[in-house]
Structure to design on (500 residues):
């Protein structure tokens, strides 16, 4: 990213099915702790999901919780945690110079389903439809709730990017900092998707909803017997700053965003396209000024579907070949698919690797699928390596959107 | 329902929509918005809860009648006559 200001990650706020701050999340990724549990939702019935248990009232009163959405609450928790982690005084930055960029897979399904259920109790009399419906379902809701909560008067919006949303929020934050539109970005992604029965039912109808008698083993990317996705909620927002600003205030720097790329398959509503994934990865790596061998860790998107995992592996094999310096892992094997949060959340769990050289594994592989037998895949147990200088974070989504972000050890 | 009952009903609804507020010190005659933090969306919540819990429809031109507990009781007394209290929902 020559000639543009360098942008760094200085704070992390997250909630995951297996952790409500980075240290807890990371510890559970290293010790094999899943966050997937039995779950039941209206109309659909018993299933499994990744459920978050963050303390919502830490940053919101009960009235605000009642008025807002689950996605808004997740976003508020993550934003406050990130600001606190970064040690940033928003008044010192200037609240009008803060931008909020939140990636989402979808928004509004939860509230719409709830409203239809409520009016069904009144013979579908729409005079019982809530006046809260519109502010809860507008596409900027989670980002807007952050600004209301923190008194931020800079720009805010959500970026609908299917399951690439988390990466897209991060990329948008980088770009706005580089353009000088803001001095601090709160950027990443959130998901409330486990509260909409429709997403479970639709994955079920696609034959893409995972099953296993043990909830913690349902999500098992690259395993020969994998059979589908686990739907999860979660969120992860970063504080992003220009490197010079971060240095000036003596901030702790987690990583530098070295490069990124986003492209489209233009081939299918649902099925991925490994050729476009390949192009996306290569473009992001080149944007970072690296060669594939310079990527020391790839955080895969793999969702535990039979076809999707194989196609991603095909793309990875084509890009990284026999690169001896590249390792590969996956976070969804622990927490399921956190949808709009996945991009930013999965990256967060790998940030500490830049310092400690430890790679968390992909778990739940009983029998590795030969089609997913990638060189460098870290299976079931963490791996200590000499050093991790860079991470390629992959997130792909429906309608054929591919995103790749490269972060590196701050120099 | 008596006017006293209606006051309890309104306070019960407010407890639902503004759960952080302390309601024991509310006066009958002072405007609710001067005593606790309620905005226009909250008053729409009161209207909606009256509709859901008691089948009472408050037309928009009468929203001003809900300003205080006393004005609520006076305004709603005819519509709430003969209805059972449904509090603690």
């Amino acid at each position: 990213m020559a000639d543009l200001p360098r942008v760094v990650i200085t704070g992390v706020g997250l909630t995951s099915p297996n952790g409500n701050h980075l240290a807890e999340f990371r510890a559970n990724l290293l010790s094999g702790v899943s966050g997937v549990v039995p779950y039941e939702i209206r109309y659909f019935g018993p299933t499994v999901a990744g459920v978050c248990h963050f303390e919502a009232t830490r940053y919101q009163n009960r009235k605000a919780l009642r008025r807002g959405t689950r996605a808004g609450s997740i976003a508020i928790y993550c934003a406050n945690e990130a600001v606190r982690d970064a040690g940033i005084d928003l008044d010192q930055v200037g609240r009008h110079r803060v931008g909020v960029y939140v990636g989402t897979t979808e928004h509004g399904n939860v509230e719409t389903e709830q409203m239809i259920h409520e009016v069904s109790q009144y013979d579908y009399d729409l005079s019982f439809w809530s006046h809260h419906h519109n502010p809860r379902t507008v596409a900027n809701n989670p980002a807007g709730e952050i600004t209301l909560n923190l008194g931020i008067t800079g720009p805010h919006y959500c970026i609908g990017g299917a399951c690439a949303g988390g990466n897209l929020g991060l990329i948008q934050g980088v770009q706005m900092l580089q353009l000088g539109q803001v001095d601090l970005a709160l950027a990443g992604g959130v998901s409330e998707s486990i509260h909409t029965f429709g997403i479970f039912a639709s994955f079920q109808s696609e034959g893409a909803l995972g099953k296993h008698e043990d909830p913690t083993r349902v999500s098992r990317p690259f395993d020969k017997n994998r059979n589908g996705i686990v739907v999860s909620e979660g969120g992860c927002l970063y504080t992003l700053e220009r490197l010079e600003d971060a240095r000036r205030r003596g901030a702790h720097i987690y990583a530098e965003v070295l490069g990124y790329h986003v492209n489209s398959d233009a081939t299918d509503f649902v099925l991925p396209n490994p050729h476009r994934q390949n192009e996306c990865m290569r473009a992001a790596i080149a944007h970072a000024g690296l060669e594939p061998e310079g990527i020391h860790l790839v955080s895969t998107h793999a969702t535990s579907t039979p076809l999707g995992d194989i196609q991603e592996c095909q793309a990875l094999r084509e890009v990284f070949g026999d690169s001896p310096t590249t390792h590969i892992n996956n976070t969804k094997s622990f927490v399921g698919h956190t949808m709009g949060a996945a991009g930013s959340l999965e990256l967060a769990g790998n940030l500490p690797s830049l310092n400690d050289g430890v790679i968390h594994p992909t778990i739940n592989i009983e029998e590795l699928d030969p089609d997913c037998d990638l060189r460098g895949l870290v299976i079931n147990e963490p791996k200590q390596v000499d050093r991790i200088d860079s991470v390629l974070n992959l997130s792909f989504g429906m309608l054929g959107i591919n995103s790749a972000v490269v972060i590196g050890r701050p120099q | 329902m008596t006017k006293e009952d209606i006051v309890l009903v309104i306070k019960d609804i407010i407890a639902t929509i503004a759960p952080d507020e302390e309601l024991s010190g509310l006066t009958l005659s002072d405007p609710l918005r001067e005593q606790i933090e309620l905005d226009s969306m909250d008053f729409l919540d009161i209207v909606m809860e009256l509709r859901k819990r008691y089948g009472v429809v408050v037309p928009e031109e009468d929203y001003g009648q809900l300003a205080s507990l006393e004005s609520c009781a006076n305004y709603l007394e005819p519509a709430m006559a003969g209805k059972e209290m449904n509090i603690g929902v």
In short: Residues 70-86 of chain A form the longest helix (17 residues).
